[in-house]
Design goal:
mainly alpha
Length: 242
């Protein structure tokens, strides 16, 4: 840190702006990383609680009110499993009610079933829900990828500026250029490059780590949705025995 503070103090006004920009990027990068890790941990905790409550229902989740699966959480925390459960309950209920209405109108018995088209419709809604929840999990993740690309370029700008200032000072001073002038420009050039890389490398690792975590959790959402859909299909799909 002493090296960076020394280079910062020896740089000119524009050089200081470059340093400040890199410091701000570093702060934003770490805050975004910590926030996203916290969000993912909270989402996983919520998912585990939903699975636990669902296990207690022993396959009767359709007849159980949604309030039984309500788990308190902060507003900014996505709740993918609760959302998936809500969608499949609501859509299944709507389709069963519609089919029951037509059965009563046609006088064809009292048993209510879901057709293949009904199952496909529920599956489509589930896929849309999973994609929307995935987008919520990826919210603000672009900040890390942007910083990964931007930080080295700002560091390179500081490098070019430091070298430019060094040669400008040498040209202006001629043979009487001091070592302080030369070392000041070179320290600015090298320090900004190092700082830019020190920001970009952790941001890149964090971005790839979070992307992999979200991809893995998306697979869990799909498995959860397929589990619920299979339960609905077994219970309500009409099977023609010939």
């Amino acid at each position: 840190m002493h090296t960076f503070s020394s280079a910062f103090s020896q740089s000119d006004f524009f050089g200081k702006l470059i340093f400040l920009s890199l410091f701000i990027l570093s702060f934003i990068s770490w805050m975004t990383l910590l926030y996203k890790i916290w969000v993912m941990q909270e989402v996983k905790k919520h998912a585990s609680k939903v699975l636990l409550l669902l296990e207690k229902q022993k396959g009767h989740f359709l007849s159980t009110p949604l309030e039984a699966f309500h788990i308190k959480a902060l507003k900014e925390i996505p709740q993918p499993f609760s959302k998936i459960l809500s969608v499949i309950k609501n859509k299944t209920g709507e389709l069963l009610e519609k089919n029951h209405f037509f059965i009563e109108e046609l006088g064809r018995g009292s048993s209510v079933y879901l057709s293949r088209a009904d199952i496909d419709l529920i599956e489509t809604h589930l896929s849309t829900t999973i994609m929307s929840q995935k987008e919520l999990l990826e919210k603000n993740l672009f900040i890390l990828s942007t910083i990964t690309t931007l930080a080295p370029f700002i560091g390179l700008l500081g490098t070019v500026w430091g070298i430019l200032m060094t040669f400008s000072g040498l040209q202006a001073s001629g043979n009487f250029a001091s070592n302080t002038l030369i070392l000041g420009g070179l320290s600015t050039a090298l320090a900004t490059t190092v700082l830019g890389l020190l920001i970009a490398i952790p941001s890149l690792v964090a971005y790839n780590f979070l992307r992999q975590k979200i991809k893995s959790f998306t697979c869990q959402m799909e498995d959860f949705a397929h589990l619920l859909l299979s339960s609905v299909e077994i219970q309500y799909r009409k099977v023609d025995l010939k």
